[in-house]
Amino acid sequence: MEMIKILKLAKDRSASDLHLVADMPPLMRIHGSLNPADDLDVVTESDLEAMLREVTTDEQPQAVATPHALDFGASVPELARVRFYAPRPPARRTRRK
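-> structure tokens emitted (97 positions)
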């Protein structure tokens, strides 16, 4: 799954927002409603990592990362300037025995 193709599809469908969540199909906000793009594959964790690499430089993830999220803007050729927000999954707690 490629980020640029999904962004172009979202633009073609007049989506104002695109939400990518692991283990779900891409979600597009169209006319205020958040709808799954059921015609697209479910996004995996490795898909998310690969798509993030498509739109960032090697240094960018570290430079714009906070403990809770990766938050930055980027220009996407032939589309627009896009804001990316990638929340980090919560830390897993281990059980005490």
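Residues 69 and 87 are 4 Å apart (CA to CA).
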